[in-house]
Amino acid sequence: MKQKVRYAVIGLGHIAQRAVLPAFAHAENSELVALVTGSPDKNRQLSRRYRVNAYDNLETAIDREKVDAVYIATPNSLHREHTERAARSGSHVLCEKPMAASERDCEAMIDVTDQNRVKLMIAYRLHFNDASGSVEDLQRIISLDGGSQPEIWGALHQAALRMGDASLAQQAQAQQAELKSRRYVERVLGIRTRSPNPD
Questions:
Q1: What is the Cα–Cα distance from 128 to 132, expressed in whole angstroms?
Q2: Are 118 and 148 spatial neighbours (Cβ–Cβ below 8 Å)?
């Protein structure tokens, strides 16, 4: 049997609790072995729930639990620091998006992982996606969900470009921009908008 990748998760906020930690129950090639956070309440609660040890120090967790890889789910401004610390401790890094707060920080993260001969990957779910399918498939998805997801319009834009349909690509790009704008207004500013018409 192939050995599983031993993960520590640092940062136990929303993305970690809603997506990352529960996903380990379904992973065939990975296992959660440590949690890292500065919150004693989260340490206690989540270590009990996931039956792993919790630490307030990343390097200690990596050393004691023989961690192969660290999943970084901390605030964006801490991604560089945590990547550097994990890499210098010999662990591979899977970092939540966005990679970092600046180009300089991104370059530093790449350099430190190269210098320590560990891998760095950003947790972006569409890395290996070919624009999510054909134009026809995407148009069918849009008609079923009412065209409310900007990601689908972005995929349609890419698919239309690949097939050389500039008009459809432009329409899809405009719809994606409109939906992203509406999402920003609703989520960040708290202002409810009307549902857009995808036609």
A1: 10
A2: no
- Which residue in the block uniquely carries the two structure tokens 């148009």? 139
Last residue of a domain, one of 74, 96, 123: 123
Query: Does the residue 199 lie in any domain?
Result: no
Q: What is the pTM of this model?
A: 0.65
Alpha helices in the chain (DSSP H): 14-15, 21-23, 40-50, 58-65, 79-88, 103-115, 135-145, 150-163, 166-187
- Domain of residue 162 covers 135-187
69-72/92-96 β-pairing: parallel
Residues β-bridged to residue 70: 8, 93
For residues 59 and 5, give the distance between their C-alpha atoms in angstroms, rounded to a whole number: 17
Task: State pLDDT tens for residues 100-114.
Answer: 989 999 999 999 999
Which are the catalytic amino acids?
Answer: 97
User: Where residue 65 sits, what CATH number does that domain have?
Assistant: 3.40.50.720
Please give the Cα distance from 59 to 103 (Å, whole number). Answer: 26
99 and 28 in a common domain: yes
Q: Is residue 87 part of a domain?
A: yes
Domain count, the chain: 2
What is the tens place of the pLDDT at every residue in 18-70? 889 999 988 889 999 999 999 999 989 999 999 999 999 999 999 999 999 99
